[in-house]
């Protein structure tokens, strides 16, 4: 097997490479490739190439809002938030193109925003007949002691709520499966 990581942002890409070098044992390091491509183009560059795809989408990062008192950052994030769902949809559509039939796709963000989470997934499900939602509700039951989940979500999505004193959340996850060629 092979593991391909893509991070468009230079700073985050360097951080990703350092993390891989720190945690992946030497015998496996040559199985990992890191690229800096525009994720919106990967589907065109490598159609139906991958068995599994994770889209850890850029998002409005609500956790930073919870613990930051910087009003300038808040204004900047509000302006960016309007454009993020389109970028997220484009990244997700590219990921579907890059996924082989039978392959699975996980979409994740670190925001509470419905527009950046469920709405993006609904848009891809409504516009792309080659993917179907995958039930991940069992995963939530398995970790319900560790995380607090938003109730009322669809079976193919989970939203971990942030908790004071805990180092995680919010975290949205949805899983899709590609059932046919794009």
TrEMBL record:
InterPro entries noted in UniProt: MeTrfase_RsmB-F_NOP2_cat, MeTrfase_RsmB-F_NOP2_dom, RCMT, SAM-dependent_MTases_sf
Domain (SAM-dependent MTase RsmB/NOP-type) ranges: 1-179
Homology family: Belongs to the class I-like SAM-binding methyltransferase superfamily. RsmB/NOP family.
A biological process from GO: rRNA methylation
The protein, known as: NSUN3 protein
Organism in which the protein naturally occurs: Pheucticus melanocephalus (Black-headed grosbeak)
A cellular component term, taken from the record's GO annotations: mitochondrial large ribosomal subunit
GO molecular function annotation: RNA binding; RNA methyltransferase activity
Amino acids binding S-adenosyl-L-methionine: 7, 38, 56
Keywords: Methyltransferase, RNA-binding, S-adenosyl-L-methionine, Transferase
One protein family per Pfam: Methyltr_RsmB-F
Active site per UniProt: 110
PROSITE patterns linked to this entry: SAM_MT_RSMB_NOP
